[in-house]
Amino acid sequence: MQKPLGYGTGNVFRDIGVPDPDEHLRKADIAIAILDEMEGRGLDAAEVAAKTGTDAETIRRLTDGQFDDLDRDQLEAFLAGIVI
């Protein structure tokens, strides 16, 4: 018998039991904003890295969804560096 579907909390990280789900959601939202800005401005990882003072590999990992090692301040700084 299948388990009935229920409603989520609005935070997938909370729903799947990730520690500190609110912080994960905030970071994911910033990462999405970075990706949107990159796409909208036609920037690649190397161009974003040059604008934000980081390396292209860090930006590539971020665009692949691998940003656990980055804190929210770093992500916000990357976003600000793209937008300026």
Structure commentary:
There is one protein chain. By secondary structure, the chain is mostly helical. The protein has a single domain (19-83), classed as Orthogonal Bundle (434 Repressor (Amino-terminal Domain)). The protein is 63% helix and 0% strand. The protein is built from 5 helices and no strands. It has helices at residues 12-15, 21-41, 45-52, 56-63, 72-83. Helix 3 packs across helix 5. It is elongated. The termini are far apart.
Strand percentage, roughly? Answer: under 5%
Rg of Cα set = 15 Å
CATH architecture: Orthogonal Bundle
Q: Determine and state the CATH class.
A: Mainly Alpha
CATH superfamily: lambda repressor-like DNA-binding domains
Number of domains: 1
Give a brief outline of the structure.
This protein is mainly α and 84 residues long. Helix content is 63%, strand content 0%. Helix 3 (45-52) crosses helix 5 (72-83).
